[in-house]
Amino acid sequence: MKQFLLLFLLSLSSAFAQQKAQLLDGDMLFQDMDCGPLCDAIEAVTEGYKGNDFSHMGMVLHRNDTIYIIEAAGKAVRLSTLEKFSKNTRKPMLIGRLKKKYKKLIPDAIAFSLQQMGVPYDEEYVYNNGSYYCSELIYDAFKAANNNKPFFQLFPMIYKQPGTNDFFPAWTDYYKAINKPIPEGQPGCNPGGMSTSDKIEIVSWLPVGS
After folding, report:
1. How far apart are CA 61 and CA 67, in angstroms?
2. Who contacts 87 (Cβ-Cβ below 8 Å, separation ≥6)?
3. Which residues make beta-bridge pairs with 31?
4. Are 168 and 86 in contact (CB under 8 A)?
5. Coil, strand or helix: which one is 166?
6. H or E stretch at 60
7. C-alpha distances out from residue 191 to 2, 146, 151, 194, Å
8. Domains, in order of start, for the chain
9. Which residues on adjacent β-strands are paired with residue 60?
10. Can you give the pLDDT at residue 36?
11. Which of 56, 64, 95, 136 could form a disulfide with 33 if both were Cys (CB 3.0 to 4.6 A apart)?
12. Cβ atoms within 10 Å of 169's Cβ, excluding its own
């Protein structure tokens, strides 16, 4: 049994290393984060690639021998190592890559994102309010790279339980705690929707490992 477990862990580590080597600057990693009721609420109203659930995303950047992920998370826009980023979830991460005809946008999108380092995290989830949540950062990065023309799409944000007129209790409690109105119907984006964009192609899944 111990030998089987060791072989299993080694195979996971090998798969992670192989897929990690294929990552390119500008690739997008989509995660099914383990963050409780809020993540569950996000995933309940958005459908990702082939019906998968995603509640967080970031963009790949290589620096020397280290792979970083540009992400809006925690308190601000930041750079996290791939290893740190992968600890958000126990599930494989989806790798999305801009289609060939759009790859010229990547350098400017990365440059824009790096200029946003330290911009506060958007705890209100309201577009264009001087702060960023994860997919909002990616949306604005590629908009800026595309001569300030929308590249990905914005959709009305949904905070109500499917088939009802009731807000998810988790969102009701959340917005009450920050003393802000629930921005139902306001334009926004999310990782699930972005994973289905016709501007990207799905490369593969990145197993969680180190």
Report:
1. 6
2. none
3. 56
4. no
5. coil
6. strand 56-63
7. 38, 20, 15, 5
8. 2-206 (3.90.1720.10)
9. 69
10. 84
11. 56
12. 11
